[in-house]
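writing this on my phone so excuse typos. first protein, seq and then structure
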Amino acid sequence: MTATDEFASVRYVVDDVAAAVDFYTGYLGFTLLTHPAPAFADVVRGPLRLLLSGPASSGARATPDDAAAPGRNRAHLVVDDLDHEIERLRAAGLSFRTDVVAGPGGRQILLTDPSGNLVELFEPAAR
């Protein structure tokens, strides 16, 4: 293993790198780290680095053909006020894949990026 650095990285295979960059930076508070190219860009939010790999990227080409659909994994983003975030994102024209689910740890809702990758917005329960 190599030494860890400041980010935990997750790769999302996307259909359109520019659309993915616009989604994550425009709606979810990510900052562009690498200038987007047709094949790849990366964005960061806190310690999370999302690798956005388009169809021409080596990361996407390494993905098995039978893994074409998004999996059940998702980026998990903690928010202070879930209701406010839902209202803000709906006003921007985004739709959600689920309704709000509440449990002992908090409340969550799922939305998708432009390529169908899941993003969970999570508001922890009051401690």
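second protein below, same order as before
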Amino acid sequence: MEIGGGRKLKSTETMAVQSVTRSAPPPRNRSKPITFLQNPKIPFAASLLFADAVLVALIIAFVPYTKIDWDAYMSQVTGFLKGERDYGNLKGDTGPLVYPAGFLYIYSAFQYLTAGEVYPAQILFGILYIINLAIILLIYVKTDVLPWWALCLLSLSKRVHSIFVLRLFNDCVAMMFLHAALLLLMHRRWNLGLIVFSVAVSVKMNVLLYAPPLLLLMLKSMDIIGVFWALAGAALVQILLGLPFLVSHPVAYISSAFNLGRVFIHFWSVNFKFIPEPVFVSKGFAIFLLAAHLILLALFAHYRWCKHEGGLLNFLHSRIVSMKLRFALFFSSASPKFGKSSSSSIKILTKEHIVTTMFVGNFIGIVCARSLHYQFYSWYFYSLPYLLWRTQYPTLLRLILFVGVEVCWNIFPSNNLSSALLLCLHLVILWGLWSAPPEYPYAQDKPSSRKHK
């Protein structure tokens, strides 16, 4: 590479930038935009939030609490508060602690606020439910995907209400932080969004299903240095939260809190109950699902999420070329000019592209998960309406798919028919997402100076 040849470097840089934005943006509708107060989704979302708050209060008042994990959570937290730092000794009724350290801090606060009692904990989780729903409604309002009336689907799940206020699962806390992180990403607050995302991971590891699409979005919207610092901030959160355990018993902490090889009990599986148990628990079945997961992610990334950049490989190549140029010109006299042109090559992603990529990436993980327990429905329920309206299916079929998924999750215990039906519904939704034409991912406005804050 000729550092002194400014003309050659410039042409190489231009080719790299052009390869990232190969497809021209589609023509935009020039009609006058609807103002915030004229958007019918806003008053409807506010009314929906109030109505759901009333429903949650009625559920807490009149529906009996179901004892599952709360007592175990409190036992594990009590051991932590008494000074135990060996994860192998933090146990409850359901077994040893298997969540990262963020779970302990948050549920320690819950124990302090509720004295470990169920009824005040239900009130606390009712508030958590409303906060989470408010965040989700804000995401839906800021993305022009669903019609206003379809927002009511977000409040129609019997199972999700039960997960939040009758079971008090930590999945609820993790997903609230995840949705908050997604809202921050929509507003280009990438560093802060990664920190909140890392907090969500510290509560439950399922949030990592969002990690592959998140990394791709970061590479699209930030330069390599920005991606590095954002990831470093997220890693620092994990280190700081786990520091008391990493210092004292690091092996026990890492092996328990970040165990990706756990085998769940076949009886509780909602999705693959029709698979014979010997096959279900086998390593071969796990490898098959992992391979399917990675292949589907690669296909969607190449043919859908990066289609307008010429495919995944072309996009990654352009980012590598850009990174090489950045380091090469850092020590040359052309570095000021390069810095200006490099920053201009980073374009703003649309809110819809961010949400679609994140939700679809997570849904692929759901489809390929070996075992989905009942509380795992909260991992993707709130994305279902968005995903359904991202397909080109008619509205009636979208509603049938939504109701079908909800029915499968409310059959207890699951059986061969309900689990097979759920898998079929998931595959139909996934096919609809695959067959839908990808939209242009970049906004037409100028980059904001706050995009990396």
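Confidence is low (pLDDT under 50) at residues 1-13, 338-344, 445-453. thats all i got for now
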